[in-house]
Give the backbone structure.
Amino acid sequence: MGEVSEEEIIEIANNFLLNSPPGEFMEVVTDVRALLPKESLINESAPRTFREYNTEQMVQVESPGHQHKVLITKYGEAADGEYVDPRGNQVIVYDHIRQEVTGKRAISDELDSSLESLRRAFEKAAFDYVEQHFPHGATTIYGKDGQIIICISSARFNSHNFWNGRWRSVWTFANGELTGHFKIVVHYYEDGNVQLNTDHTVKIALNESGNPDAIATAALKAIAKAEQSYQQALDTSYQTMGDTTYKALRRALPITKTKIDWNKIKNYKIGGEMSQK
């Protein structure tokens, strides 16, 4: 086998970064740098990799000058490092390396005026839905290319207890149909390394017509039903795996139903050997 080229090393390193669990990206960056023959290898590709990770994860940031949060997504990218904040009627400047908002500017032609009344109706309904069902979540709603796009992202980071997770869903509404795409990643790493990764798509025909508020209300009711159903299905899977899959992976306890104290057994063995001398 030939020597691995620098290009292949960079590709492997970036693949590790892009698959970082939620809330652990910078830790993975530090670990990957330590493994590289030269830390500078990923410097050139870092801006692109950080940007791809942040937009794919739909990270939340505070809207400058407002009380709501906005998502950094590929759907709202106005230019490199610029992201539309429709609710705040502005475009925010985001530094992907520093992972923080560094400025803002007024919206020019980033909003589609032909969809704006419908988008605003979806925005109101979506904000109410997220506030009720995602205490740690945020949503940003776009109107572009003849469709309404609802992005929802909710993360919980609890590194002290060795777990982190993020829910992401993207819904598009066009021509009377809703298409939803869910992604969930949960990482549990106390005395082990377990990850849950899900990727699910659903389509819903929406028969509601009329004014934008009625359509948006019906759409968010359908979204709530679909997401609740999916979460219930996951709960059922957890119970099934706990009783079957995970149980089969675990080492059965001895007849005493207690864990073996290997240190004690080791001491017994040493004591026995010494008594024979």
About this structure: Helices lie at 6-18, 25-35, 46-57, 116-133, 212-243, 245-249, 262-275. Residues 212-243 form the longest helix (32 residues). The first strand starts at residue 60 and ends at 62.
